[in-house]
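Dear Dr. H.,

I hope your travels went smoothly. While you were away I took the liberty of generating a structure for the chain from your last submission, since the lab meeting agenda had it listed for discussion. I wanted you to have the full record in hand beforehand rather than looking at slides cold. The sequence, exactly as received, is reproduced here:
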Amino acid sequence: MTQSPKVVITGTGAVSPYGAGVFALTEGLFSGSCGMHTVPELEALPMVKTKVAATVPDIDFSYIPRRDRRSMSRMAKYAYAAAKETLQSAGYAVAPQGLGFFMGSTLNSISVWLEVSKNCLQNHLELVKTSDFLQIMNHSPLATVSQALKINGPCVGAADACATGLMNVGLAYLAIKQGVVSQALCGGTEEYHPMFSACFDIMQATSCNFNDRPGEACRPFDKDRTGLVCSEGCGLLFLETEESAKKRGAPILAEIIGFSSNTETENMAYPSAQTLRECMEMAIKNAGISASQIDLLNAHATGTLVGDIAETQAANAVFGPGIQVNSLKGHLGHTMGASGSLELIACMEMLKRQEIIPTKNLCQPDERCAPVTHVTQLEKHPVNIILKNSFAIGGNNCSVIIRRPL
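The corresponding predicted structure, in token form, is as follows:
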């Protein structure tokens, strides 16, 4: 029986509230800076309690050829920039033949959808362009970026809300393991619109007590947390077999050793500790290791009242109270479909630096959260294996385990 290949990561690319590039992302996180700010559009909506979001600063995308750019939504432009950086990071000037592409988002471009809807409702169909439709397809970023960069392998756009980025990494990992492709670009992208904040506000899941102090608004695990802060960006990774990477002399940044996914069937909005526990346990089993070998749990932890409690309960059940736990949402906000892949890139940097980024704004852990070892300051710490979680509204859960290169 042929042994399945090892899957390694050899390239990364990012666009985040810190700006364009992986360097901007990691330096922002390790320096402890925050990407959150008040949003004028939210301040103009009195029924929406939250007034804070984290958005990508202005980026000049004029370098994207016009014939490609005109069909791209903002999130597709983020993905184009991240894909170009990822390919370059992996050692490619252009996409290699047969490259797989696994990328999705929570929703397509809301701003374009609203504009198209307005023109249709007002009987101004002459104002709707073909490029508008291309920007609102469910797989718009995947399609437009693959066309622009000539990615000709299988293109799959899994959309799993907040688990999208990590789910696509997991699907790419499985595709390489099964021999469907030998190399893949994967992750998630998202663009912010005030409707995101409004919808989560309706569900009473947004941060609303720190509008005057936006940098403190997202507080994972903290007793004063009131909810999440919506954000945007794109994170992509280049995956390939270890044999492929070594054959072409590509530096290996990390190895993916485990992946799992399951579905919460009891509640569309809130995960149960039992389902989250099972997801992590399956990933550990898939990796062929023990729970005691995990050095860090990079939690999904968005700062919601219910979600943080469930995740710590699950973590305590799997690892016990000694497991080191951090969340990056206090820095970045919740980048939705991009969160899992962006945060996985940060996890790789923690493996490289042997430093753990603390959970920002965690001043006093909520006693209702199960006991775990919270990381509250930047510290040197031996880190060889990290388990990364992403959980989504709708019940889609996934866990990915990465290991420092041997």
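Two observations you may find useful: The longest helix spans residues 74-90. DSSP finds 14 helices and 16 strands in the chain.

With kind regards,
E. W.
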